[in-house]
Amino acid sequence: MHLLAMRTWFDAHSHSRPPDQGDVALVCVPPAALGSLADDGFPVCSGVHPWQAAAPDAREGFERVAIAARGRRIAAIGECGLDRFRLDAPFPVQSEMFLRHARLAEETGLPLVIHSVRTDSDILAAHSSVRPRAAWVLHGFSARTGNVDRLLERGIAASFGPRELARPRASGILGRIPSELLLLETDDSGIPIQEVHRTAARLLETDVDTLARRVAGNWTRIFAPA
Fold this sequence. Notes:
This protein is an alpha/beta fold. Helix content is about 40%, strand content about 15%.
């Protein structure tokens, strides 16, 4: 059998379980689902999304996440973060909720999965304030060109999905990501993670098997350290 047919593909951010049971995905679930989540072995992350930061049940949701994080029932915290494009919640409320998640990540040592839309400078400011030891991962990486290197210099990992890879500047941005900070994801696209890898490999002008090994190593180091 060809090596690629035997490959385990690693997905850094998904909203559904991988269709192939041999693949590995970090599945994002809402806080309300944590209480009834069956322990069937797949890695989960959970957090209060910035769009929901002002919802009536936001603080209760955060407490659910905190209990799950402290009990090691989740592999990562998030997605949480900041969004200046859709102000479903006032920005100060988003910021306060995001910092609560960041402090929880520091307390538990779990990685932080971040939603960031037009908030590069805000993420950098939060990083300077928290000075995290826990890993930070920007999912759906869409930093402005001038901020890419500033974010990467902090050791923040960059996860790319189909939308990000389809943008005109994707090849140039991908080429600037240090090999140890690159992740790939399906998000809510419904596109198989194998196809995401193939697209990224084409943009990077590398072979897909080499890229898959790199992503697998990064995923394991960040989300499932020994």
